[in-house]
Amino acid sequence: MARAGSNEHAQVLAHVRSLHSRGLLDETRLLDVVRDGNFDRTTVALSIMCDLPIGLIERALVQTEPEQLLVFAKAIDLSWETTKAVLTLQAGRDGVAKERLNQCFASFFRLQLKTARSALQFYRLREQANRSSVH
């Protein structure tokens, strides 16, 4: 609700959608946004790149467990460098412990692209079903 009424969020959404419509929303642009530490832009960009609702991406970014983000990153074919930056943003100012990053790294590379894309499709279908049942 707060997001929907926010003028700043509306501007971010318009800007990121504009980049996407012009074919300029890519991994490099995402990495820049993530490195800037802009939570709202990162959320909107990942939402558009994954074709998932913003709320789902927000929840994944505020959770302490990174598995969902690893699946999303793998499914949209992000590099480890970009994925690590997203995980660092997720961890906040405390950062990510090196051993935790090593675990994520291993999980990320074990995860098959096909499996990640199937999981992403499941999330999309679940969100569609949730929207349908609300209306």
Structure description:
With 135 residues, this protein is mainly α. It has one domain. The chain is built from eight helices and no strands. The longest helix has 22 residues, at 113-134.
Topology:
Elements (H helix, E strand, L loop, with lengths): L6 H15 L5 H9 L3 H12 L3 H9 L4 H9 L4 H12 L6 H13 L2 H22 L1
| Total discrete domains | 1
Query: How many β strands by DSSP?
Result: 0
| N- to C-terminal distance | 17 Å
Strand content: under 5%
Q: What is the residue-averaged pLDDT?
A: 90
Structural class: mainly alpha
Low-confidence stretches: none
What is the helix fraction of residues, given as a range? over 70%
> What's the story with the biggest beta sheet?
none
Number of H- or I-type helical stretches: 8
Condensed summary:
With 135 residues, the protein is mostly helical. It has helices at residues 7-21, 27-35, 39-50, 54-62, 67-75, 80-91, 98-110, 113-134. The model has no long low-confidence stretch (mean pLDDT 90).
